[in-house]
Design a protein that fits this description.
Helix content: 40-55%
Radius of gyration: 21 Å
CATH class of the largest domain: Mainly Beta
Strand content: 15-25%
Strand order of the largest sheet: 1-2-8-4
CATH superfamily of the largest domain: Jelly Rolls
Largest sheet: 4 strands, antiparallel
Number of domains: 2
Number of strands: 11
Shape: elongated
Distance between the termini: 72 Å
């Protein structure tokens, strides 16, 4: 009898945990598309009726750090808009090795690169911080793009901007020596992501190497050199830029 009660309790506890996880995944928001502070970035040309149409399929999903949103090769069924947190967009190579294409931050439309050119993702997306994503059915976006030329143009502009950003950053990184690459990525996180000189690195040393095309050993070595030169302070994943002028020079001449 005791064993039966214990087993029933375990089942009950499991069901409770599953329910709590479900609550954590899906977030009910008070404000919808009409009141979204990011509306002007891409949805500014939509009228209230069109926004109401989007609301029918819209939901917000919370992802914990490390969660995979979608994998390379899966069908593109939804339009993903990053509200808070950070994501990495990456491809998997032979030997299960990965290459990070870009880091996506708030107000980024992470599924836009493939949605109009493919029916399956050409890359994977994973959370590198706790992240909230606004999700809309992709067919709804395509319908509005067909019926609203101004909205379609805004989508094209955003896609072009994202492609330009990827090409520009890839080119800049490849033109630099190893120290310049590390300086580039540290300043990227300090100035564009966290907007402060002290922050917690959201990715590992290995992932930094994947992002800027370096070995993990070289990433560790150069971070150690920067610390010895008192350019940065390191405490585990905490980085503090102590001499930003020197780091800027290294980035420039790197």
């Amino acid at each position: 009898m005791i064993i039966i009660i214990f087993k029933n309790y375990c089942i009950f506890e499991t069901l409770i945990n599953l329910a709590l996880n479900s609550v954590m995944k899906y977030i009910n928001t008070v404000s919808g598309c009409k009141n979204c502070p990011y509306r002007a970035l891409i949805f500014g040309s939509l009228d209230n009726k069109e926004l109401d149409f989007l609301e029918k399929t819209r939901k917000e999903i919370f992802y914990k750090k490390g969660d995979v949103l979608t994998k390379e090769g899966t069908s593109i069924n939804e339009f993903l808009y990053l509200k808070t947190g950070l994501l990495k967009v990456y491809k998997t190579r032979a030997g299960n090795k990965t290459h990070i294409i870009r880091i996506a931050g708030p107000s980024d439309f992470v599924s836009l690169l493939s949605m109009f050119s493919n029916d399956k993702y050409k890359y994977s997306i994973a959370a590198i911080e706790d992240t909230t994503v606004c999700v809309v059915d992709s067919e709804s976006i395509k319908f509005l793009a067909k019926s609203n030329g101004e909205f379609a143009l805004e989508l094209m502009k955003r896609m072009s901007y994202t492609y330009d950003e990827i090409i520009d950053s890839t080119y800049r990184i490849r033109q630099k020596h190893l120290r310049g690459r590390i300086a580039y990525i540290l300043l990227y996180f300090a100035q564009k992501v966290y907007r402060q000189n002290r922050f917690e690195l959201p990715i590992s040393r290995r992932e930094i190497g994947e992002l800027i095309n370096m070995t993990t050993e070289n990433v560790i070595r150069i971070l150690s050199e920067f610390r010895k030169d008192q350019i940065i302070f390191i405490d585990g994943k905490i980085i503090e830029i102590k001499d930003i002028e020197r780091l800027e020079r290294i980035k420039k001449i790197g």
